[in-house]
């Protein structure tokens, strides 16, 4: 039921959020947070209502902008500050909630989830991660509320965003190990539904990335060799866990009485790709040799097949929103393209990646999708440049010419200025006994105005671009050798931006976010 005091615009925006935005965010699985909690709470809590209006209006503008661009329709330039103004009101409301004598954590977490999706949709990822980091710090605190009374569905939603941050920022440690350590410790013998499978896989994904970032990366990129036995045992334990999870998903998929909707079938495929990629990461996280990945060609091919099926079956307009926070396609395909050295498999993965960045999958100009596609292209071209065969296999690419890790910067830059990023690659050209060498390649493109969300004034401008406009890329390559580089300098930028010292409950200062939102 819509608030009877709401304006016509607010009523329409809420209806759009309920019918279009919330289903996109919940994705392939039933989720009480988006199916019920947010919708019900927005009727009596102004902060949640403002955040719902902001996200729904921004999503609708993106869809309208995409439709105009695809149909070559002439649309006048429109300056609509409604989403930004609603977001600013939501930030004020969140500040009031945080200043209360007893912090209503369920409301705070709901507001944070909405704001993270708003910032991600306009590709302002540092503010999005600021929200996530502060929510995690609030969950760590026990002075102003009882953490045991927080709805676990909300915590799981924050945990999924927490894992997203560690996926894209190579040195970021997940912030919820205290929660995952006490959750889902009993390993089931079978899955009774996909929600149970998703929750268990997310918990173990968080545990895996905490181990990788906090312990394993030290041996993989810095102090190579000399791995303690207990860390080897942990790596083997995690690998076996994901092997077992893969088997449980396989058994669940072949239940004689199983009946899944189309979305649930795609969700099952997404979980299978995540488990297979996690198994590869767990098995290789302590070793700096890139040839370790050659043993997982069947898994890479399975991941490619599943992702291709999902891309061919899923509705493209859903990815307009969900591509902002990876739904389980972008990262697996990028991993296959950059870590699998079998030419047929990696080039097929690159083709699927381009679909995510194309007008059929999502609006051209989503910079981090374009940047990931171009980074994968750079890695493949770099590794295959010295091969005599047109379609090299794993054995044709020696260890000394392989890219061990890759990444790109620009996460902290405002969207209109992201017309140039640096793709970073790390390799050992002198063999395993030599030093690390870093290769940086500048990638430049002109971004169409309809994709520029943000800027100094943070206004949302709808401008018509001619259909068929293409990004023009120019490459420049530089080579340097630096010690201690790991998965891109964007991580250090992020750490400076969001990991502030002494940031407790009372320090969730939203003034900077408000100033950056509306002048």
List the defining traits of the structure above:
four-stranded antiparallel sheet, alpha+beta, 519 residues, metal ion binding, globular, transcription regulation, Transcr_Regulatory_Proteins, Fun_TF, two-stranded antiparallel ribbon, zinc
Please, could you describe this protein's structure?
The chain is α+β, with helices and mostly antiparallel strands. Among the domains are: 1-150, no CATH class; 157-288, no CATH class. 55% of the residues lie in helices and 6% in strands. It has 18 helices and 6 strands. The protein has helices at 8-26, 32-41, 46-71, 82-98, 105-121, 125-140, 152-168, 177-180, 194-222, 229-253, 262-284, 297-313, 319-322, 330-339, 343-357, 367-384, 490-498, 511-517, and strands at residues 78-79, 403-408, 420-427, 437-444, 461-462, 474-480. The strands form 2 sheets. A 4-stranded antiparallel β-sheet has the order 2-3-4-6, with helices on one face. A two-stranded antiparallel ribbon has the order 1-5. α4 (82-98) packs antiparallel against α5 (105-121), α11 packs antiparallel against α12 (297-313) and α15 runs antiparallel to α16. It starts with 7 loop residues before the first helix and ends with a helix. 49% of the residues are buried. The model is unreliable at 74-79, 359-363 and 447-506 (pLDDT under 50). InterPro entries: Fun_TF, Transcr_Regulatory_Proteins. Keywords: DNA-binding, Metal-binding, Nucleus, Transcription, Transcription regulation, Zinc. GO terms for molecular function: DNA binding; metal ion binding. It holds the Pfam family Fungal_trans_2.
């Amino acid at each position: 039921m819509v608030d009877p005091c709401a304006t016509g615009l607010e009523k329409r925006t809420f209806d759009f959020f309920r019918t279009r935005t919330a289903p996109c965010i919940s994705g392939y699985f039933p989720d009480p947070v988006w199916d019920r909690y947010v919708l019900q709470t927005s009727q009596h809590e102004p902060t949640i209502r403002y955040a719902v209006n902001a996200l729904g209006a921004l999503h609708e503008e993106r869809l309208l902008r995409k439709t105009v661009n695809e149909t070559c329709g002439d649309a006048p330039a429109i300056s609509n500050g409604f989403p930004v103004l609603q977001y600013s009101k939501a930030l004020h409301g969140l500040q009031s909630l945080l200043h209360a004598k007893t912090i209503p954590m369920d409301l705070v977490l709901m507001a944070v989830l909405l704001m993270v999706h708003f910032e991600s949709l306009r590709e302002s990822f540092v503010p999005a991660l600021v929200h996530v980091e502060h929510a995690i710090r609030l969950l760590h605190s026990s002075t102003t509320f009882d953490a045991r009374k927080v709805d676990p569905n909300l915590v799981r939603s924050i945990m999924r965003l927490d894992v997203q941050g560690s996926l894209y920022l190579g040195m970021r440690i997940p912030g919820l190990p205290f929660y995952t350590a006490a959750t889902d410790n009993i390993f089931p013998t079978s899955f009774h539904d996909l929600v149970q499978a998703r929750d268990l896989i997310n918990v173990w994904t968080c545990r895996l990335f905490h181990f990788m970032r906090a312990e394993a990366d030290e041996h993989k990129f810095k102090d190579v060799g000399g791995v303690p036995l207990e860390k080897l045992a942990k790596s083997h334990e995690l690998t076996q866990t994901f092997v077992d999870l893969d088997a449980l998903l396989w058994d669940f998929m072949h239940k004689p009485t199983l009946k899944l909707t189309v979305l649930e079938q795609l969700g099952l495929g997404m979980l299978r790709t995540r488990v297979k990629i996690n198994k590869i990461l767990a098995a290789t996280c302590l070793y700096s040799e890139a040839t370790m990945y050659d043993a997982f060609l069947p898994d890479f091919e399975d991941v490619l097949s599943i992702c291709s099926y999902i891309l061919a079956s899923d509705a493209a307009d859903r990815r307009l929103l969900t591509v902002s926070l990876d739904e389980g396609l972008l990262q697996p395909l990028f991993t296959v393209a950059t870590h699998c050295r079998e030419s047929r498999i990696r080039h097929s993965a690159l083709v699927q990646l381009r679909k995510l960045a194309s007008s059929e999958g999502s609006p051209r100009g989503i910079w981090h999708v374009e940047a990931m596609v171009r980074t994968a292209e750079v890695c493949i071209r770099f590794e295959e440049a010295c091969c005599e065969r047109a379609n090299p296999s794993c054995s044709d690419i020696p260890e000394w010419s392989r890219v061990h890790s890759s990444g790109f910067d620009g996460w902290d830059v405002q969207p209109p200025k992201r017309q140039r990023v640096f793709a970073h690659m790390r390799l050992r050209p002198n063999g395993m006994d030599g030093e690390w060498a870093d290769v940086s390649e500048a990638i430049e493109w002109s971004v169409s105005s309809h994709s520029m969300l943000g800027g100094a004034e943070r206004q949302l401008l709808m401008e018509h671009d001619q259909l068929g406009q293409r990004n023009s890329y120019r490459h420049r390559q530089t080579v340097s050798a630096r010690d201690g580089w790991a998965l891109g300098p964007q991580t250090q930028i992020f750490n400076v931006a969001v990991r502030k010292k002494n940031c407790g409950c009372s320090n969730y200062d939203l003034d900077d976010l408000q100033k950056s939102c509306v002048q």
